[in-house]
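User: Quick sanity check before I run a bigger batch. Here is a single chain. Can you write out its predicted 3D structure?
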Amino acid sequence: MDLKNKKAVCIMSGGMDSTLSAYMMKNDGYEIIGVHFNYNQRTQTKELECFNNICDDLDVKEKYILDLDFFKQLGASALTDKNIEVPIGGIEEGVPITYVPFRNGIFLSMSAAIAEKEGAEVISIGVVEEDSSGYPDCKESYIKSMEESINLGTKDETNIEIKMPLVHLQKSQIVQKSLELNVPLQLTWSCYKSEDKACGVCDSCRLRLNGFKLANVIDFIEYE
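Assistant: Done. Predicted structure follows.
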């Protein structure tokens, strides 16, 4: 197939992992279709700003910004229910309270509809199995099963591959790979709690900061 006709639907939160995944797709010759979800997460405004800035840098021509009020009604997560505190005591055992029930499954299902409509052959998602001890929807086996289900439930001529290029990487390797590809990490956001300066103490900030530390690089964003 002509490289110019290859399309990848990239699920992009505005965070480091999904951003690197999108840049890897572009480097592989895909036209990027950016997909972002507003799901009543605490840092929704900041994440949307990051997504738009990253799409500008990637020269994305087609993007979808989808509002999911459902998650506000659902609650059950510190990311979507402000009555539940975001933990700051380090990585939790088991499934953390920041897990949003079946979020990646819902995101992938909606992205599959977009991919089928747009004639895209790839969906990119920045899942990392390093996270999957807490987040069951970040496991490679789960994502592969979703790929199978999506292809069973779409037209015969639709054949969608879900690419997860970071699934076996450590956070420090993600930082290093981002620097190699000139990914603008200063445009990304990882904090679960704050939209002005990153808190530096939530699980996501800790993972990010440790990744930069192990990569011997100073992070590009401001922390409280």
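The domain at 3-214 is CATH 3.40.50.620 (Rossmann fold).

User: Great, the batch can go ahead then.
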